[in-house]
């Protein structure tokens, strides 16, 4: 038996968790973008069933390549295949977000996590668990707007991203909301942290789900999407394999 076959059989015995929302025409999404359109081109009455899908790259659970915000940044096709299969760390701040939907994950939260679970290793994918995905499939609940049309959603702090990227050497990050940045800072300054993150030449996953089923450390994440030519982003099927 080859080493790869042994690894395959071992992985088959583990629990696998789907980290992607199902893609539908009524899926919550960034409001400036069009919804999925799907139609039948041929049906089984014609002898075979063929569908046509029209969907933007940043729809549903999706990946953002650096080129999404950064001139000259990498396209999806330029991300190394090995960087789409990574150790997974989940920082759980769901309690804090339940108490304060404007919560921002900072460097101190990461240090507190490491004090309990050990240092985050280089080459890791770090996910911010907020349990925001439990608001799915409501567009209004996902956006959580106030009377002034300001979005009240959690997000990453700049100090946390700087620490993870430059002091821990992570490969990518992910979260359950539409944006990297929390809602209030976005309303005041725009998506500064998302620009910063992609400027560092790493990718991110947005609108993740089922992070509540994962351990803090020890799991793996596998990310797949079509082999697009020069795509800035794409819906993904992200799967976690538990230890």
Automatic annotation (TrEMBL):
Task: Establish whether keyword Isomerase is in the entry.
Answer: no
Tell me one GO biological process term: L-tryptophan catabolic process to kynurenine
Say which domain of life the source belongs to. Answer: Bacteria
Q: Which SUPFAM superfamilies match?
A: Putative cyclase
Q: Which GO terms describe its molecular function?
A: arylformamidase activity
Give the keywords, sorted.
Hydrolase
Which InterPro entries does the record associate with it?
KFase/CYL, KFase_sf
Broad class of enzyme this protein falls into:
hydrolase
Q: What is its EC number?
A: 3.5.1.9
Q: What is this protein called?
A: Kynurenine formamidase
């Amino acid at each position: 038996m080859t080493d790869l076959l042994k690894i395959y059989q071992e992985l088959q015995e583990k629990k696998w968790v789907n980290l992607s929302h199902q893609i539908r025409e009524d899926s919550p999404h960034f409001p400036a973008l069009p919804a999925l359109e799907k139609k039948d081109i041929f049906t089984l009455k014609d002898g075979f069933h063929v569908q046509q899908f029209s969907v933007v790259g940043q729809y549903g659970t999706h990946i953002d390549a650096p080129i999404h915000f950064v001139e000259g940044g990498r396209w999806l096709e330029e991300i190394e295949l090995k960087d789409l299969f990574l150790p997974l760390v989940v920082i759980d701040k769901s309690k804090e977000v339940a108490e304060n939907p404007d919560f921002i994950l900072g460097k101190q939260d990461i240090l507190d996590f490491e004090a309990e679970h050990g240092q985050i290793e280089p080459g890791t994918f770090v996910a911010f668990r907020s349990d925001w995905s439990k608001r799915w499939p409501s567009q209004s609940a996902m956006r959580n707007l106030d009377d002034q049309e300001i979005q009240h959603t959690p997000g990453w702090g700049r100090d946390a991203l700087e620490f993870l990227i430059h002091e821990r050497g992570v490969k990518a990050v992910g979260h359950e909301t539409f944006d990297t940045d929390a809602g209030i800072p976005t309303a005041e300054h725009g998506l500064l942290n998302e620009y910063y993150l992609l400027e560092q030449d790493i990718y991110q996953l947005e609108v993740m789900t089922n992070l509540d089923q994962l351990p803090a450390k020890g799991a793996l994440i596998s990310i797949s999407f079509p082999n697009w030519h020069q795509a800035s982003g794409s819906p993904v099927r992200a799967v976690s394999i538990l230890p």
